[in-house]
Amino acid sequence: MEIYYSLEEIAQQSRRSVATVGNFDGVHLAHQELLRRVQERARQENAASVAVTFDPHPSKVLAPQKAPSLLTPLSVKQELLAKSGIDRLLILPFTRDFSLWSPEQFVQELLVNTLQATAVVVGESFRFGHRQTGTPAVLQELGQRWNFQTEVLPRICVRKLVVSSSQIRRLLDEGKISLANRLLGRPFSIRNRVEPGRGIGRSQTVPTLNLAPYAERLPAAGVYITWTRFPAQSDDKKGVEPQGAEPPARQFRSVTNVGHKPTFGEHELGVETHLLEPWEGEPPNNLEVSFLFRLRNERKFESAEELKQQIMKDIRGAEAYFRRLERFRVSIMLHE
Question: What's the CATH superfamily of 187-334?
Answer without folding.
Answer: Riboflavin kinase-like (2.40.30.30)
